[in-house]
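Could you join me in thinking about how sequence relates to backbone shape in a protein? We need material for that, and I hope you will provide a protein of your own picking. Once you have written the record down, we can walk along the chain together:

…
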Amino acid sequence: MKLKTLIGDYPVTRQFRTRTERFEFAQFQGSVASAFKRVVRDLEFDVAEMAIMTFLVAKAFGKPYRLLPFVVMARFQHPYLVSSEALSPKQLEGKRVGVRSYSVTTGAWIRGILAEDHGVDLSRIQWVTFEEAHVAEFKDPPNVQRAAAGKDISAMLLAGELDAAILGAIPTDPRLQPVIRDPEAAGRKWGEKHGAVQLNHLVGVKNTVSKATADEVYERLLQSKQAAGNPPMLPHGVEANRRNLEVAIDCAYKQRMIPRRFTVDELFE
């Protein structure tokens, strides 16, 4: 049987996506993240790209997936927190900050940066979300409210209905500016401090997939990555990602998104 598979189109997955004899690739509207609810709610896929925070929350609620140590997206998140006015991170306390969903990975990384590097009290920010969490069982904290139906995060920000927002892409609108000063340099500094990169998306397999089949999937992913020139920002292998995953787990735990710090090895069991 073919493995039902959800994988986005990236340089490192492009060759993998040609393996039609082994995989049945899902269709989705917009970005691949739009289909993550199908992974963790409907358990639809045998092989699935998943955001790291979605995976950790899903694991906390017993969803039957395990990781493969293959990264399809990683980046430093500092440029994605923007405002239409000059605000420092500390000035976000008492303000309204938009984010697509509270548990999305970029949002979690940004909150961790604000708390750890800028001393921001996250409980004093009013978070405004636009959709529910990927994992249905996850409950937002009390300082989260839902925007009215039909509202757009960028439009609200430009209209002054939000003081800042965490966006999925760096905006090109000159009216918007990063809240974290010199975000590229701040990202490099964060990486040096933690000895890690901020993971976004990895690949998971359903627990019903045998080890032999999972090994086959992983090997084909590695071949695809090699064909793309082995980008260094996207490490593969458990040991190459151990520190990256430890930092991600710690980020989720400190924000009470997961009930305990998982060990890295647990994620692959």
Notes: Residues 114 and 178 are 13 Å apart (CA to CA). The mean pLDDT is 97. Helices lie at 36-40, 52-60, 105-118, 153-158, 183-194, 211-227, 238-254.
